[in-house]
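User: ok so my PI wants both of these folded by tonight, can you help

Assistant: No problem, let's get them done. Here's the first:
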Amino acid sequence: MPPKKVATSKTSSKPTSSKGTTAKSPEKKADSQKRWPLVIDLQGNVSTFFKYRDANVLQAELPGDLSVDKLRVALIGALRFGKPLVLDMGSRDMGEVEKLNDVETNLLDSLLDKTLLEDERYLTLVQPEDEKEYHNSAYYATERFSLVVVTTNPSPNTHIASRMTCFQVE
């Protein structure tokens, strides 16, 4: 599936769709709304935007940012406070997103299909040494949580990209 292109202009702060966009059938639209966004950011501005927002941003190009414990803590923090978890892959291989599976078996799949958010399944990520508020689902704002993957690779050709809604920012 080719990425949707989003053009930006210096006179407007809102991105606009490129010409030639066609309306989708209701079934396809509903399917794409279930998917998390994959942003193909050729200039690297989207990552900077998220750094100044209330988001948990992990950068693949920084040593240790995709370590098991850092991924786990960033994920449960984003789930608890209803924030986006942004995985900034930079120019790295999109396959590194699969490091989420080192945190818990099939974690990437359960994030992409959103089953992690059902029936308080996310509580399996909480460790005994985490603060007590993390152990109680009443403290979580999962309805506002989102997963965003950002890459500067113009053609992320992986099975991960096929399971996300792709946007290209120029």
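One down. Here's the second:
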Amino acid sequence: MMRRYTNLKNLIKPAKTRFATAFLTLSRMHQQKNNLRKMVTSEDWTSSKWAKEPQVLRLVDTEKKPPMGYIYEAMDRAKECIASSFDHKEEKYNEIFEIIDKRWDVQLHRPLHAAAHFLNPEFFYLKALEVQKDHEVMNGFYECMQRLVPDVTVQDLNTNEMSIYMKAESLFGKSVAIRQRNTRAPGNILLDS
């Protein structure tokens, strides 16, 4: 839809540095601002499913919840939405995924995001087995722990106590903690021991 309103012009112009890419993209957005305004106020847009869908950019730019623990899930949902809009015919969306993955790998795909996804109770307890079997997420979690906790004795203690989190035991199993998995940001849940 955007390409139709901008006369087939792209907004993103990749460059060698993130700053240059951001600058060039903003410049293109400025050049196309009237066309973009027409698009988001058009009947096409307001009646489309995209106008109603929460988007990754909105999630990352929110002040309600820190985005770190939500970025992985948002990317998964965005990709699922794209695949579904092409009836899961990979040949139709493969090129789009390549662009997304290239950007994701360069700018956002970091062990800290994987660790935050693992430690976000909203998603972990929703699909615990899937998260635990996700090599990328678990590798990111351990890599992050090794960087942030240099003492191997403390690393071993953390690893031994992970089962308490993973099985929702102790404080994680309290009804207040269970109720607040979806309403409070990770790290914002305060419980008395």
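The chain has three domains: 1-49, 53-109, 111-184. Residues 53-109 form one domain. Good luck tonight!
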